[in-house]
Amino acid sequence: MTLLSATDAILVIIDFQARLMPAIHDGARLVANARRLVDAAGLLAVPVLMTEQNPAGLGGTVPELAGAGPVIAKMSFDSCAEPAFLEALAGDMQLVICGCEAHVCVGQTVLSLLEHRRRVAVVQDAVGSRAAESKEVAIARMARHGAEIVTTEMVVFEWLRTAAHPQFRAAAKLIR
């Protein structure tokens, strides 16, 4: 994968859930960055897919992100174990991944997507774990296996490609 493309991407939001987020290191910043990604996706017509891990136990998606896209409930840590998840990602789109926890659900999902030969970009500043060390090790592992590691700002500006884009001003405001 080289540059990300808004015409060739799906934003995948993994398990940003109400009962989980208070335990996530730097959780408020991660949710804010995920919201920036959702808003940029909306401006640039990038589809959004969301998951919720055991929603009966961990609650629904945090209010800041609720309703951003269709939600697939799951019990497996690896979202790919849920047939509806892979069906929703049919085709050869770039998968831009954010969510929690980096070393469990995000990590297992990303590694599985890579095994399925999917193009995956993990948004480092919109992925979290309870412990910073767990996130750090997970990011390194995903990168070793072929995931691109990017930031929220990289995603937004690569989706835009040019300051001449009709949505440039609106998207740039999301970053500032």
Account of the 3D structure:
With 176 residues, the chain is α/β, with parallel strands linked by helices. It has one domain: Isochorismatase-like (Rossmann fold). The chain contains 7 helices and 6 strands; from the N terminus they run E-H-E-H-E-H-E-H-E-H-E-H-H. Strands 3-2-1-4-5-6 form a 6-stranded parallel beta sheet. Helix 4 (102-115) links the parallel strand 4 (94-100) and strand 5. Helix 1 packs parallel to helix 6 and helix 6 (152-160) packs antiparallel against helix 7 (168-175). The mean pLDDT is 96.
Number of domains: 1
Number of strand segments: 6
What name does CATH use for the topology? Rossmann fold
Strand fraction: 15-25%
Mean pLDDT: 96
Pfam families: Isochorismatase
Domain Isochorismatase-like: 10-153
InterPro entries: Isochorismatase-like_dom (IPR000868), Isochorismatase-like_sf (IPR036380), Isochorismatase_domain (IPR050993)
Protein name: Isochorismatase
Descriptive tags:
single chain; 40% helix; six-stranded parallel sheet; Rossmann fold; alpha/beta; 176 residues
Which helices and strands appear, and what pairs or packs with what?
Layout: E1 9-14, H1 27-43, E2 48-53, H2 55-58, E3 71-74, H3 83-88, E4 94-100, H4 102-115, E5 119-128, H5 132-144, E6 148-150, H6 152-160, H7 168-175
Structure described in brief:
This protein is of the alpha/beta class and 176 residues long. It has a single domain (6-175), classed as Isochorismatase-like (Rossmann fold, 3-Layer(aba) Sandwich), CATH 3.40.50. It has helices at residues 27-43, 55-58, 83-88, 102-115, 132-144, 152-160, 168-175, and strands spanning 9-14, 48-53, 71-74, 94-100, 119-128, 148-150.
